[in-house]
Amino acid sequence: GVTPEAVRSFAGGVGVTRTNRTVELSALEFSIRDNLNGISPRVMAVLKPLKVTLTNYPAGQTEQLEVPYWPHDIPREGTRKVPFSGQLYLEQTDFLEVPPKGFHRLSPGGRVRLRYAYVIRCDAVIKGPDGEILELLCSYEPDSLGQSSDVKGVVHWVSAKSAVPLEARLYERLFTVPNPDEGNGDFLEFLNPHSLETLHGFVEPSVLSDPPQTRYQLERTGYFWRDPLDSREDKLVFNRIIGLRDTWESEPKESVFTVQAEPKAQKDHSAPVALELTPEQSTILELLTGRGMGEEEARVLAREPH
Description:
Layout: H1 4-14, E1 21-24, H2 25-37, E2 42-43, E3 45-46, E4 49-54, E5 62-68, E6 79-85, E7 87-91, E8 111-114, E9 119-127, E10 133-141, E11 154-155, E12 158-159, E13 164-171, E14 196-203, E15 215-218, E16 222-226, E17 236-243, E18 256-259, H3 279-290, H4 295-303
Parallel strand pairs: 2-15, 4-10, 8-11, 13-17
Antiparallel strand pairs: 1-18, 3-14, 4-7, 5-6, 7-12, 8-9, 9-10, 13-14, 15-16, 16-17
Helix pairs in contact: 1-2, 3-4
């Protein structure tokens, strides 16, 4: 899903040198995010669903909310219809029974705003025989649509009635170290066991009418696009191109993008060494310096015609 424009932007920022070098992988990722940010409409998807029932919402009713595709800082226009009903899916991670200090999402007795929609309050938690949370019973505040409130947390959601099943493939970096070849000779020991995680959730139905090549930002999750081979209308498969931020940023040296060049003999750079040139190379050197090229650059070109 990485676009040619993102790759060209990265290459232009890196430049060209005559020596082997490495570039932080975060530089490539920055170019990808910078490109996708301006071309990817925002939609909502829940990848680890937790069922929520709004007990005071009119039974059988469905609203169509007019929701923007783009945030305020992107100078583009466009909206889509998002269904809202009394049964929703939230992310499992947006609810905690015993929330830590500073947790602004949903908890028993707590309130949170549904993105673009209403404020809800968690009234009860339904659990299974093993103690796992199966469903939340909540109530919504009918007058809170489009109104400001004292609620700090905002979470995304999808309507259970119209949600489209989605297989989401979350790709991460393949290796856990910058240069896996520098180990004991077996790069396999540095494979990242979490380089691919497959989740099954739901996405809003607006994506069904979009072109297959559309890149999306799934809100609060990352940038995705449809798998060009495996995705079908009756079974959507989205591949994550990249996350919204660098999840490895606390360890900025954990991974790099290596630009390979032809191996060269190690040199002692403590003092400049003028390598002896063949007669043919000397002729090229004189030709290049005679045209105004510096001697150091001319020597490189004379010795290395490729």
